[in-house]
Design brief:
It is a single chain. By secondary structure, this protein is mainly beta. The chain is globular, with a radius of gyration of 17 Å.
Length: about 280
C-alpha cells in the first residue's frame, strides 16, 4: 500500500491507539493529514503561519491514548496539541519551554511527552497538560548525556528511551527519567550524516532507524545485551529499492511498518519483517 494523495514532503508519522488511522506531519504543506491505514483520506488541518493551528515546518508528530495529536511546529518553537479531528487544544512553547526549532515529539504509554529540541540538542519531558517534568538532558557535545542535533525518539517495553543523535551519528539509550545508559552506533550513518532520522520499535522490541542518505532502515534487537544488529530494509523481493529518501517511521500493533519517503511524497506500508 502507498499513500500519495495531497502530500508534499511528509516527515513524521503516528498511529491512532487502535491502529486504524495514521497521522502525518505534512511538512511541505504546513499541515497535518489523517488517513486510514489502508490509504483512505480523512481530513487535513493547518496552513503556514504563527496562529493557533498554523505551522512553520511541522516535522514530528505523536498521538496519545486518547487520540490527541501533538505536532512539533519547528520554526514557531512550540508543540501544538489537537483532538483527533484537528481542533486546537493547547500549545507548549514560548519562554517557559525554551525551545529552538523542536523537530520531534513522542508520547509514552504513561502519557509523558518527550520533545526533541533539535536546535539546542536537548530532550525535554512534559505531561499532556504542558507541565514540565524534571530537567531536560543534553546540550551540544559528544560525551554520554550530550547530543548534536536530536531528532527521532522511541520507547521499548522496558520504558527505555531511544534518541537519534544525528550529527554524533548514534542512537543514545536513556532511562525514562532521562539518565543516559549507552549508545548504539548505526553503521549506515558513519559515512553519510543522517538527515533527521526517525526511530520506531515493534512488538518484539526490535529498533528501526531510518537512514535517508543510504536509502535504508537498520534494525537492532534491544533485548540482546549488546543491541545486536539483525537486518536492513532496503530492497524488495525483486531486488528493487524500497525507498528514495526514508525519514518518518511508525509501526502498528500488528507490526506493519509505515515509512514516509520524502523525495516522492508518499507513505509506504510494509508487512511485518519478522514473524509474530
Amino acid at each position: 500500500m502507498c499513500i500519495r494523495d495531497r502530500l508534499n514532503g511528509p516527515r513524521g508519522l503516528a498511529l491512532s491507539p487502535d491502529s486504524k488511522y495514521i497521522y502525518l506531519a505534512d511538512y511541505g504543506n504546513n499541515r497535518v493529514s489523517k488517513f486510514t491505514v489502508d490509504g483512505e483520506y480523512i481530513l487535513s488541518w493547518g496552513k503556514r503561519g504563527e496562529g493557533k493551528g498554523e505551522f512553520k515546518e511541522p516535522s514530528g508528530i505523536a498521538v496519545d491514548k486518547d487520540e490527541n495529536v501533538y505536532v512539533a511546529d519547528a520554526w514557531n518553537s512550540r508543540i501544538q496539541k489537537f483532538d483527533s479531528n484537528g481542533k486546537y487544544l493547547m500549545e507548549i512553547g514560548g519562554v517557559k519551554a525554551s525551545f529552538y526549532s523542536p523537530r520531534n515529539v513522542a508520547v509514552d504509554r504513561y502519557g509523558i511527552l518527550y520533545v526533541a529540541d533539535t536546535g539546542t540538542s536537548r530532550v525535554h519531558r512534559f505531561d499532556t497538560k504542558g507541565n514540565r517534568i524534571g530537567n531536560p538532558i543534553g546540550g551540544i557535545g559528544k560525551e554520554l548525556g550530550k547530543f548534536y542535533e536530536v531528532f527521532g525518539i522511541a520507547f521499548d517495553s522496558k520504558d527505555r528511551v531511544y534518541v537519534a543523535d544525528c550529527k554524533n551519528r548514534r542512537i543514545v539509550v536513556l532511562t525514562s527519567d532521562l539518565r543516559p545508559i549507552r549508545t548504539i552506533r548505526v553503521k549506515a550513518w558513519e559515512d553519510v550524516t543522517p538527515m533527521w532520522p526517525m526511530l520506531a520499535i515493534d512488538s518484539r522490541d526490535y529498533l528501526y532507524a531510518t537512514s535517508s542518505g543510504t536509502q535504508e532502515i537498520w534494525i537492532y534487537d534491544t533485548k540482546s545485551p549488546k543491541f545486536k544488529y539483525v537486518g536492513t530494509l532496503k530492497v524488495d523481493t525483486k531486488g528493487k529499492p524500497l525507498f528514495s529518501d526514508p525519514l518518518g517511521i511508525t509501526i502498528d500493533k500488528y507490526d506493519n511498518i509505515y515509512v514516509s519517503d520524502t523525495n516522492v511524497s508518499k507513505i509506504i506500508k510494509l508487512r511485518p519483517v519478522f514473524g509474530r
